[in-house]
């Protein structure tokens, strides 16, 4: 660490870089000035005034990024005293049309822009990248970001109940609604922005937006040619390299983007290393009055498995323990492609049509100690889908309509490793269709919103046991209103209220009680769909130096499919219905430009989360450790699994010059329970972590960045896990509760050094 710090200071004080003051004007294609466009470079930013003009001091030769909601993003070098023309945004926003919430829509959301992604990303998966956003708690199985599988909860709600999309394409597998970002290595470097909606939000596609939704937008295609090379290395054998290329405008209006990435890591936990590669491609070409765009990627990963947690005594003796064997590994590939066409329809309307293909395939091995065999579980799933959207603006009224259909088929197999013995093979088919309509009515200070989605899904199983098909049909409505407290002023503020309902079917793992190959004829109607009624109210303020947001929420669940705190034989969380439960809380978010070079950011979640009544099933053992019975015990008014009641993030960003920036982030996560009994002996301990970063432009085309996580080397950071509870019955009939808590350890102090070269 001392060597790296010394290197950075030598680079900082031994290089010279002149600054330049850029003065320019931003207009649309008709020469009209564009006011309110954001202009940024090297951590410094400004906005255009009413005449479309701006002044910004940057490092000589730096590229500017110019963004505005109504126009495509421009990234280019500007000499100054010139006019920059922006292109209308419909071509770049088509993939999120009808799914994302615009600023005036009355839903609770957080937007992460390209500049923030570039500043905070250092090779970690999306869940770890977003860990400083409100109400989000993330963790990784291998113990360090950028290695293995990582996940997050949103308001304490598991990721299988959160909707994930990329350019409007659902990313979760249709059977169990899980999204595995290890299969999408280095995806963040090819993203333009991320929107996180908390609560039921707006209607979307794929698995229902139940606890929230995360919409990823692929990177904008640039009008100028550029190449970016990133090389990095860090703790626990982390090594990464990527090359990105923007073609700029070619003959016929064709534009291309591509990025090739390689990432390797040894992982924090023993034998939890990973090797990943990915190729991301995007291209667009005008066709008649519209635009045709192709986006896709192909990725692959090989890793040592670490999806079992470790008990406390073992972790205190060996913090890097991994109970899985070195030969328990997995290998998965993932391909995605989407072809989209967008065009205006008349003067105030446009339509989009898209078709997409996804395939996730591979295997993982698990050692079975009952017969000393290594078994290989195979998965091969393919999703085909199509979507149509239509948007029309008529004065104060904007309407959007969408239709989406898809079909998913996945094969499940199990073989004895290194033999020709196949123990089973089955497959499931799931199809769905949904249609939505959205209405936004602008009445000056008032903005009224309505949203309705009709969704139907069907699942059929094909295997050794014959099961009846099952179908679900849901109607999910949302309404809301926003009122501007200040209108047409430098400082704007508004209040909003919204109410919505979302209903969601159980996953395959829920239907089969954790079995990968059902051993009995399960009733597929036995697990009830879960429903949430979501009520949100909030206040937003945006001024020249500060932005503030505060909201309260109440998410009232019926038949919630709640986690039990246990895992299935293949490592998936086991769940079952509970009658009544809720999550209620307050969220705060603030950003303050303390001075031209210092910015503060804060957010917090304070919540009360409860299950009205939970029945825990305990194994009963005698004094000699022999199993003798199973006993249910009812627990009332308990906290749900892994739902901390306090989450706080505080960050500072300092930019003393265009060529130097540094910052720090503090993160506090409160205690959470490993099961629904709320026994304090089976809980994740609260913890506080601090991270730090520094970035320096060593030349006008090269930048060095250092990220240090867990700066104070905090130990026993165990944000997730599970438990096993049992009863011991004495000869006199007295019973005592015992058990074992298991935790996923997160790494101590670790660092990543990146060199980014752009030309």
Which characteristics define this entry?
single chain, 759 residues, mainly beta, disordered N terminus
Produce the secondary structure layout.
Blueprint: H1 2-14, E1 19-27, E2 38-41, E3 44-47, E4 53-59, E5 63-68, E6 71-77, E7 82-85, H2 90-93, E8 108-112, H3 114-120, H4 126-129, E9 136-140, E10 150-154, E11 162-166, E12 169-170, E13 191-198, E14 212-218, E15 226-234, E16 238-246, E17 255-265, E18 274-287, E19 290-304, E20 310-311, H5 312-317, E21 329-344, E22 349-368, E23 373-394, E24 397-416, E25 422-443, E26 446-462, E27 470-484, E28 492-504, H6 508-511, E29 530-542, E30 546-567, E31 573-595, E32 598-621, E33 627-638, E34 646-657, E35 660-669, E36 672-673, E37 683-684, E38 687-699, E39 702-709, E40 721-729, E41 735-743, E42 750-758
Parallel strand pairs: 1-7, 11-14, 32-40
Antiparallel strand pairs: 1-4, 2-3, 2-5, 5-6, 8-13, 9-10, 11-12, 13-14, 15-16, 15-42, 16-17, 17-18, 18-19, 19-21, 20-41, 21-22, 22-23, 23-24, 24-25, 25-26, 26-27, 27-28, 28-29, 29-30, 30-31, 31-32, 32-33, 32-34, 34-35, 35-38, 36-37, 38-39, 39-42, 40-41
Q: Could you characterize what this model shows?
A:
With 759 residues, the chain is mainly beta. The protein is 5% helix and 59% strand. It has six helices and 42 strands. The strands form six sheets. It has a 22-stranded antiparallel beta barrel. The N terminus is likely disordered.
């Amino acid at each position: 660490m001392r060597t790296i710090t010394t290197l950075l200071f030598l680079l900082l004080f031994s290089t010279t870089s002149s600054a330049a003051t850029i003065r320019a004007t931003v207009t649309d294609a008709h020469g009209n000035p564009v006011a309110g466009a954001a202009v940024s470079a090297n951590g410094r930013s400004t906005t255009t005034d009413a005449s479309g003009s701006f002044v910004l001091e940057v490092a000589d030769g730096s590229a500017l990024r110019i963004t505005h909601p109504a126009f495509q993003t421009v990234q280019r070098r500007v000499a100054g005293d010139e006019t920059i023309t922006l292109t209308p945004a419909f071509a770049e926003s088509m993939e999120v049309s009808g799914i994302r919430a615009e600023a005036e829509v009355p839903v609770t959301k957080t937007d992460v822009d390209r500049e923030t992604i570039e500043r905070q990303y250092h090779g970690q998966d999306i869940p770890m990248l977003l860990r400083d956003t409100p109400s989000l708690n993330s963790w990784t199985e291998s113990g360090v970001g950028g290695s293995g599988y990582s996940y997050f909860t949103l308001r304490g709600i598991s990721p299988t109940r959160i909707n994930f999309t990329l350019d409007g394409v659902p990313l979760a597998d249709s059977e169990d609604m899980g999204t595995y970002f290890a299969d999408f290595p280095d995806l963040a470097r090819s993203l333009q922005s991320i929107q996180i909606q908390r609560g039921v939000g707006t209607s979307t596609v794929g698995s229902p937006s139940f606890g929230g939704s995360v919409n990823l937008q692929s990177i904008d295609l640039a009008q100028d040619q550029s190449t970016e090379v990133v090389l990095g290395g860090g703790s626990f054998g982390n090594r990464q390299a990527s090359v990105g290329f923007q073609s700029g405008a070619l003959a016929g209006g064709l534009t291309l983007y591509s990025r090739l990435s390689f990432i390797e890591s040894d992982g924090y936990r023993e034998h939890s290393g990973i090797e990943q590669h990915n190729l991301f491609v995007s291209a667009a070409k005008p066709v008649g009055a519209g635009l045709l765009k192709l986006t896709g990627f192909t990725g692959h990963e090989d890793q040592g498995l670490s999806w079992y947690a470790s008990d406390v005594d073992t972790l205190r003796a060996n913090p890097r323990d991994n109970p899985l064997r070195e030969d328990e590994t997995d290998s998965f590939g993932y391909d995605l492609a989407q072809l989209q066409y967008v065009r205006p329809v008349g003067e105030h309307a446009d339509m989009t049509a898209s078709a997409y293909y996804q395939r996730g395939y591979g295997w993982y091995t698990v050692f079975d100690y009952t017969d000393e065999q290594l078994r290989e579980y195979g998965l091969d799933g393919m999703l085909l889908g199509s979507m149509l959207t239509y948007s029309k603006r008529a004065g104060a009224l904007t309407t959007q309509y969408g239709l989406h259909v898809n079909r998913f088929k996945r094969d499940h197999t199990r073989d004895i490793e290194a033999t020709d013995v196949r123990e089973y093979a089955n497959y499931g088919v799931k199809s769905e269709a949904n249609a939505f309509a959205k209405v936004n009515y602008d009445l000056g200070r008032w903005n009224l919103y309505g949203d309705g989605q009709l969704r139907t899904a069907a699942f059929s199983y094909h295997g050794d046991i014959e099961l009846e098909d099952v179908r679900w049909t849901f109607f999910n409505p949302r309404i809301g209103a926003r009122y501007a407290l200040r209108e047409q002023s430098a400082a704007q503020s508004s209040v909003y209220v919204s109410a919505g309902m979302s209903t969601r079917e159980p996953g395959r793992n829920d239907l089969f009680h954790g079995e990968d190959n059902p051993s009995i004829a399960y009733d597929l109607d036995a697990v009830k769909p879960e429903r949430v009624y979501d009520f949100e109210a909030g206040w937003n303020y945006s001024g020249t130096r500060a932005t503030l947001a505060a909201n309260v929420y109440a998410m009232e669940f019926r038949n919630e499919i709640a986690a039990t705190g246990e895992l299935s034989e293949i490592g998936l969380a086991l769940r079952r219905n509970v009658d009544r439960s809720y999550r209620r809380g307050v969220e705060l978010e603030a950003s303050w430009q303390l001075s031209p070079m210092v910015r503060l950011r804060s957010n917090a979640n304070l919540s009360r989360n409860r299950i009205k009544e939970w029945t825990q099933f305990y194994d009963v053992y005698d004094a000699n450790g022999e199993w003798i019975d199973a006993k249910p015990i009812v627990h009332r008014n308990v906290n749900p699994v892994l739902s901390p009641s306090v989450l706080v993030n505080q960050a500072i960003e300092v930019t003393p010059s265009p060529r130097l920036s540094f910052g720090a982030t503090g993160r506090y996560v409160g205690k959470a329970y490993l099961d629904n009994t709320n026994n304090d002996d089976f809980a994740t301990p609260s913890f506080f972590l601090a991270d730090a970063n520094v970035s320096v432009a060593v030349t006008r085309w090269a930048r060095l960045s250092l990220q240090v996580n867990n700066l104070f080397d905090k130990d026993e950071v165990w944000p997730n896990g599970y438990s096993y509870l049992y009863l011991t019955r004495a000869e006199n009939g007295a019973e005592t509760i015992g058990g074992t808590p298991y935790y996923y350890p997160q790494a101590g102090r670790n660092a990543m050094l990146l060199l980014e070269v752009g030309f």
